[in-house]
Amino acid sequence: MNNLSINDIIQISNCEVINLQSKDIKFSGIAPLNRANKEQISFLINDKYIDEIFSSQAGAIICSKKTAELLGNKVAAGLIVSDNPHVTLAKVSQKFFKPLHPFHGISELAIIDKSAEIHPSATIFPFVFIAPGVRIGANSVIYSNCFIGAASTIGDDCILYPNVVIREGCRVGDRCILNPGAVVGGDGFGFAADTNENVKIPQIGGVLIEDDVEIGANSTIDRGALFDTKIGRQTKIDNLVMIAHNVVVGELCFIAAQVGIAGSTIVGNKVVMAGQVGVAGHVKIGDKVTISAQSGVSKNIPPEQFWGGSPARPYKEWAIYAATLNKIVKQTNKKS
Q1: pLDDT tens-place string over residues 185-216
Q2: N or C, which end of the chain is more exposed by having fewer CB within 10 Å?
Q3: Sign of CA dihedral 323, 329, 333, 336
Q4: How many Å apart are CA 187 and CA 211, to the nearest integer?
Q5: How buried is residue 332: exposed, middle or buried, by Cβ count under 10 Å (0-12/13-18/19+)?
Q6: CATH number at residue 56
């Protein structure tokens, strides 16, 4: 953990600082308003906690311009005034908390093919398997029991936590994080039904994961049948998500836990899918779409819309439907 000066924080966040008693103070970490001490930074993201500011012992508090104007000189702490306090909190937190890896270097207990190219600064834990033709970039960390298949590539500054599987012919960009049990490049669910058998269709595509993607624990991204499944840069995938073959997910998306996306679906940029959303195959979802939890998407969604329900529809339409159905059920129960 690093100690940061207020000048460090200004440089990181490009924020204005007001009411700070001394610019020489060094901050040792971040804590909630009701737990912070004078050497820690706190934050106000949700206005329902605003009363806690007045009793907080924090040395400085990240807040919005609106909150700073409201408080004025009523608090003892300095204020780190931000256009987006949540983002500022995230950026400052990254400087305080860095992943600590208990092993460095390339373990003699790892199984590494001679043709693999591993940057000297990479860390390979014991009991990793690295197949022929693999390339691993600078400062990447591969934890124990990971499997990296033939001709796959891992970019710079990646972290693969224990039991991650990267099958053959997959590409992972820079600064990606794959949490325990994630599987990238498993076979897609491709079969042709005959009278007495289900004939497997070879899945000869791979998976392309662009820069700054995070994949949650036990999530799976299937390889393409003929071309690559793709996950766009800065997309964040939660735990227990299933993405099928030939799906294309755009940039800056959020995909929450237990979402399932069927094959050949195209997802635009900045799409948000809440928990347990199910998406049928060959569907197109436009940019900046939000889909509420447990929705079932069976048709295309135009850009910048909010949908919900099963089958999914524009959210206002679904809310009216749900309210009407609830009213009918109540009336029916009264009659019976």
Answers
A1: 999 999 999 999 999 999 999 999 999 999 99
A2: C
A3: positive
A4: 23
A5: exposed
A6: 3.40.1390.10
Structure tokens at 53: 């500011």
More confident residue, 111 or 25: 111
For the stretch 309-327, pLDDT in tens is 999 999 999 999 889 988 8
139 with 251, same domain: the answer is yes
Q: Are residues 156 and 55 in the same domain?
A: no
**What does the alpha-carbon distance between residue 227 and residue 207 come to, in Å, rounded to a whole number?**
8
In a domain, 122, yes or no: yes
Residues 130, 226 within the same domain: yes
Structure tokens of 89? 């909190």
Greatest alpha-carbon pair distance for the chain in Å reads 80
Q: Indicate whether 190 and 158 sit together in one domain.
A: yes
> Which domain CATH number covers 127?
2.160.10.10
Q: Do 149 and 292 belong to one domain?
A: yes
Structure tokens at 116: 């693999």
To the query of whether residue 245 is one of the catalytic residues in this protein, the response is yes
The whole domain housing 51 covers 4-96
Mean pLDDT, range 181-185, rounded to an integer: 98
In a domain, 328, yes or no: no
User: Tokens 């850009």 sit at which residue?
Assistant: 303
The DSSP-derived string for 99-163 is ---S--SB-TTSEE-TT-EE-TT-EE-TT-EE-TT-EE-TT-EE-TT-EE-TT-EE-TT-EE-TT
Active-site choice (101, 104, 119, 245):
245
Question: Residue 154 in contact with residue 164, Cβ under 8 Å?
Answer: no
Percent of the chain with pLDDT over 70: 99
Pick from 256, 247, 264, 263: nearest CA to 291 = 256
